[in-house]
Structure formats: C-alpha cells, structure tokens
Amino acid sequence: MRDFALEVHFSRWEFNARHHMTASDMESMTLGELTQMAGPSARENLDALWLGYTETWGAPDLREAIAATYDGLSARDILCFAGAEEGIYAAMRVMLSPGDHAIVSVPNYQAAETVPLGLCAVTGVPLLENDNWRLDLDAVRAAIRPNTKLISVNLPNNPTGALMPQEDFAALVALCREHDLYLFSDEVYRLLERDEAGRLPQAAEAYEKGVSLNVMSKAYGLPGLRIGWIASRDSALLQKLERYKHYLSICNSAPSERLAVMALSVSDRILARNRALIAENLEKMDTFFAEYPDLFDWRHPDGGCVAYPRYNGRDGVERFCHDLVEQAGVLLLPASVYRSELMETPAGRFRVGFGRRGIEAGLAAMKDFIARRHNDIAPA
C-alpha cells in the first residue's frame, strides 16, 4: 500500500503548526469535564475499574449503548474496534479476496480505496463536483461487475461534507439488494448535519447487508478514546471480523470503554454543544470567505465539520497551502492529499475544518498572509 498521504502530512505539521485549520474532529474535552457531565458516580466507577483485558467484541454495556443509536439493532449487531481505521482495515481484509471487485466513491478518506486496492480490483465512482458532490449513481450502476462484492461510501463525506439526497440513498440500497452487494458506509460524521431533515438512515438499519462504521472521534469529539465500531445485521460477517480482530488490537482499552459509555449516556448534551459550535464557526467562515469572493469558492457542506473550498489564486493550491503553513503557521490540506489512484480528482481544492474552538486566530493569520502576498496570489 502507498503511504497514507494525509497522515504523512499530519505527522509533519499536526502538532507543530500554530493554527490547525483542517482538523477533522469536533472540539474535545478533558477527562474531568466528561466525568462531571456524566454524573457523580462516573469518576468513582472509573477509579474502581479493573485494568485487565476486555472482551474482543467490546464491553456488553458499551455495545448496548452503541446499539441504542440504531433503529432495530441490538448489542449482538455491534463489534467494537480501536478507532475507525482498524474497522476499515479489518472489514476490507475480511470482505474482499483477490478475485473480487469493489466500488468506492471518490474523493474519499484514503483508506477506503488504498486497503481494497491491495486486495482486489477496485473502481472509483465520482462525487460530482458541479452537482453539490452528488454521487454519480449512473456510474455506480455501470461499474458493477459479476464479481463485484461491495460498494463503499462515506456519508457525510470527508473531505467535501456532502450527503446524498434521501431518494439517492434509497436507490443505492435497492441497487445493492438487486445485485446482492454489501454496502459499506462510513458514517463517522453522522449527527452533524446542517439540516436534520437530510439525515440519512444508517446502512445497517436500512439494508440486511449494510455495514455501518462509526467512532467516538468525530461527531462526539473524543478521538483520544480510540473507540470505533461496525454495526451489521450479518452475524456471520461480524463473527469473521471478530476473529480477524484477534490479529490486530485483540480488545479495546478498558478505561476507554468506560469513558465511551459515559459519553454515550450524555450524547445529547455533547452533540448539542458540538452543533452549536459548528453554527458559530460557520458564521466566522462565511465572514472570512466573503472578503475574498474571487480568491475562494466557498459553500456550506451538508454535514460534518470539514469542507472542501476551491482556491483560485494564481500560485495554485499546493503552493498556497505550503507557504501558508511554512510562513504563517496555518495548516490546511491541499488537493494532493486526496489524490486517488482510481480516477482524476478535482484540483484546486483544500480541506478546512471548523469543529474546534479558536478558529478566529487561524482566520486572522490567513488574512495577514493573504494581505502580504496579495500581488503574488491574486487571481489573474
């Protein structure tokens, strides 16, 4: 597998740049803040925790709490992982063999295509840049082969923040059912939609071969817990995944499981806080981009806490992002990080995040940089 471009970029800059303006997670909290929110007994329960191995499937009460976030699922339909990345890796390794074929939406989180590419034939289908990043269902339909095993999507999408219209999602499920395909759905930004009316069903709810991936990292803002999961009504698939996890993390961290249970018990409060922060930060983003209508093409994403604007400066987005972090300490992710091996991807774009507090300092640094470099970067 080729290097994970996003993580390589982050390994250089994530903890060195002064202004992390491309974070993909929501504002986190301290251990004390979480235990206080969870109630008087939360810290006592944590202090009394036995630090031994936990169940490979995940603690029973954690799986019950996760299952409660789905309609019609129970704890037996949940398998926990050490973050979402382990879930992606295990699922692709278990579900795909050399003679299979997979279909992946593009642009995407790199692991969604890189891991399958190491296993079998893969076809990329585009999110249509000029149609609000709508998945090209005609291209999906045309890509299906006799040996196609699964279709992989990410909703809301990273990096674009795009959702599918409800009717498109229903059509995608029907297509998978018609051809007996798995639908692997990365749903880590679910619950952060701008409009709740656009919130999609989870794949594991909507389809008997739906496989839903989620994690405590993004919408809940708790990436340090490293707790993710896969939900599916396919018990045989979950059993195979559990056996594969024996070769990976084996089990999750016991303190992390306790903290995840606490967080899910107060999820309404956490999500309300996070949605309010997104709304506040989007107003700041709107104000910033409105000052540079020729330099940037900006629109609100449908969901999540990242967006994918276009940069129109004459220096190009790669040079802009490079100089911005080197000279002004502002970290963005340029389009090259989202390069696909499957098909040509939109150029000129960059990922910006707006899920954390304090983004006004990063926006101010960007304004100062643009003012200093105006003659060099202004569109022709």
From TrEMBL:
Residues 50-354 form the Aminotransferase class I/classII large domain. InterPro entries: Aminotransferase_I/II_large (IPR004839), PyrdxlP-dep_Trfase (IPR015424), PyrdxlP-dep_Trfase_major (IPR015421), PyrdxlP-dep_Trfase_small (IPR015422). It comes from the Bacteria. One of its GO terms (molecular function) is pyridoxal phosphate binding. PANTHER family: AMINOTRANSFERASE FUNCTION, HYPOTHETICAL (EUROFUNG). This is Aminotransferase class I/classII large domain-containing protein. It comes from Nitratireductor aquibiodomus. The lineage of its organism: Bacteria, Pseudomonadati, Pseudomonadota, Alphaproteobacteria, Hyphomicrobiales.
